[in-house]
Fold this protein.
Amino acid sequence: STGTFRATMPLDVAPIYCAEQIEVPEALPDILKEWSKSVLRANLESRDQLFAFSAEYFRNLSAQTAGGESDFADLDDKIPYICEAFRMMQDAFYSIDVDMSGSIEKSELQTMWRQLGVELDEPTLDAMFTEADIDQSGKITMAEFLSSTCMWISANEAVEAFAGVSALRNSFEHVYSAFTTFDPGQTGTVKKEDLVGILMQVGLELLPNQISQVFLQFIPDFDEKPEVTFKEFLIGLFLHLIKTQ
């Protein structure tokens, strides 16, 4: 009966206020809406993943609101080694690209690795160059070079003697972890609309139109593509960093 139900209700229930008694921050609905979209796109599989993702999401949002730091400095907070690795490899690239054309040929790539103390045999050099030369122009740009180098070093134990390998490998692993948060099926691709969230996880805030501008530089049909591979993501990331230094 109704009387019995009331008799069993606990007496220490917190009071429920009506809408008129609660001051809701004006931005709260939009914030929760954007957070909900990011959560759904991430395809999280457990409460722990949800808590970890949400903590990272709102930490990034708070940092962005604070402002006052460049993209590159904020990225260094997120990925402790990437500035060191990026500048080291950039210096190596420019030491070979003496005409400042922004690209190098295969023979120049081999020379650069020799200067870094790594001797590449011909098959390895061919494979590395072919992997990096996405547009098959016979030359590789700085962004192509950086992305392919990160992927190669991460998978190659033979380069442990290379002085900067620790910085590169750690940078790569941090970025890859952010990417795979949105690729739970380990397909090697993410939905294009998830790029905002991935970049946020590595400390960068870019709007969708800004992301399109970056990727259209090397993927002419980017606006029609539904997905982006990890290699394409790396090239886009490095292209953005090169331009914002």
Notes: The longest strand covers residues 189-191. The radius of gyration is 23 Å. The chain has a mean pLDDT of 75.
